[in-house]
Amino acid sequence: MSHPSRSQQPQSPAAEAERLREAFAEVAYDVTPSVVPIAAIAREGRRRRRRRTAAVLGAACGVLLVPLAVVMLRGGVPGGQGEREQVTPPAASVSPSPSMSMPHAGKVRVVTPGERVTVSPGTKIWLTEDGKHWTEPDQPTQFRSVTDGNLDLSSPGVSLQESGREDGTVFLSGIFYGAGEPALVEIRTVAGDIDGTALTLAGEPGWGVWYAEVKVPESVRSSSDFLGGVTERVTVYDSAGGVIASQEFSS
User: How is the chain split into domains, by residue range?
Assistant: First the structure.
């Protein structure tokens, strides 16, 4: 029987591991490592940082734009359905003295002597220093004096002339006199309350003319209680709400 030589006998695990390490070391020494691409790595890092910065800025701008859009919509930008228009509340009005306030905005005109004022087609009125003049369609010129003694200018008062037409329109006019500058003429009629117009001459003559036109409904004209008179009361106010003159008339 033959026996294997010593060289062919198996090696121990420790010796085998040592032999493998030596072999790997020899192979590693023969390999030349490549140069590390430092420049490329730096460029890639800068590119990624820029992308992250842009994403963060975009998100921040979006957050800022949302409140801005809300503010613009709340500010009442025109053109959108359902938007509300901001309304500035009116300034508080100051009541004249005395405590009563003037109910309507009146009309007052300062005219020169002889200046014609057109009331309606064919109806004109004018003042001279001696009184009131007016014309109506198909009527001669009429006149009421303030100097002939028929009016007592020493105490406040109001005179009245009425002239009706077939369509129910009535021309109302007269002379008022009293202390103060007129600002409003309020007329109570069977057809309701209306505002008149005051005409005065420059200076302080102590008198003026008022006029208005009113349409009386057929139901009122055909009533058995209607006696033909339209005017019930005329009151002339000054700018402070004080009464210059007031007169009651039977209807």
Answer: 34-87, 107-248
